[in-house]
Amino acid sequence: MLQINPDPPDRKTRILDAAEHCFVRAGFHRTTMQDIAAEAGMSAGNLYRYFPSKDSVVEGLCERDRRDLAGDFASFEGGGDFMATFFDLGRKHFEDEPREKAVLCLQIWAEAARSPVVADFVAGFVEDVTSRLTALLEEARAAGRVGRDIDPQAVAILISTLADGLFVRRAVVPSFDAAREVPRVLNLIGALVSGAMPLPCPKRLAEDAG
Q1: What is the chain's pLDDT, residue by residue, as a tens digit (210 residues)?
Q2: Cβ count within 10 A of residue 127
Q3: DSSP the chain
Q4: Measured between alpha carbons, how far is 163 from 91 in angstroms, rounded to an integer?
Q5: Is the distance from CB of 150 to CB of 192 less than 8 angstroms?
Q6: Are 170 and 176 in contact (CB under 8 A)?
Q7: pTM summary value
Q8: Do residues 92 and 71 make contact, with C-beta atoms less than 8 angstroms apart?
């Protein structure tokens, strides 16, 4: 695992913000460390003190997103309305956040398909999100706040799959209408979480196919 220089967080934030702008504007491969340094208003030599490579910058972006999502998941604490909280977070990430965030996701995913190092960062991020969401659903099921017969892990994976699809559409489809499409996906997730739309058992699907 690449190590990031433990120096003042404000400069790291400035560098990560600059990297986001560069990756969105020019793409991951066309962006150089010199480009990121110029965007951050510092010398390339100074940048390398904090991040030794573009891969380490991507790791920094993934870790920052992981921390932000941990804060989002903390909003479920307290036993409130599970789906109301979930809808609020869905609107935050797919309507309120700038489209550039979705473009950045696609840039990182594309690099993960080519780079084993970046693929490890992304896999770790996805595993963390899925594990946290599974745990939330398990707690909510035990408290009677979601359907008692749902499979928390299967629902968590499907939620992640649907979220990935929204990110892709928002990034690449000019006609994407967040106000129309996001509520539809959230309503579908609500049906899954409540148990109103049960997921088919893989064993039963295999038997039917046979």
Answers
A1: 444 444 455 899 999 999 999 999 999 989 999 999 999 999 999 999 999 999 999 999 999 999 998 899 888 887 788 889 999 999 999 999 999 999 999 999 999 999 999 999 999 999 999 999 999 999 999 999 999 999 999 999 999 999 999 999 999 999 999 999 999 999 999 999 999 988 876 555 445 555
A2: 10
A3: -PPPP---HHHHHHHHHHHHHHHHHH-TTT--HHHHHHHHTS-HHHHHHH-SSHHHHHHHHHHHHHHHHHHHHHTTTTS--HHHHHHHHHHIIIIIS-HHHHHHHHHHHHHHTT-HHHHHHHHHHHHHHHHHHHHHHHHHHHTTSS-TT--HHHHHHHHHHHHHHHHHHHHH-TT--HHHHHHHHHHHHHHHHHTSSPPPPHHHHHHHH-
A4: 11
A5: yes
A6: yes
A7: 0.83
A8: no
Looking up tokens 């870790």, which residue turns up? 63
Residue type, 104: L
Q: In the numeric block, which tokens belong to residue 9?
A: 């967080």
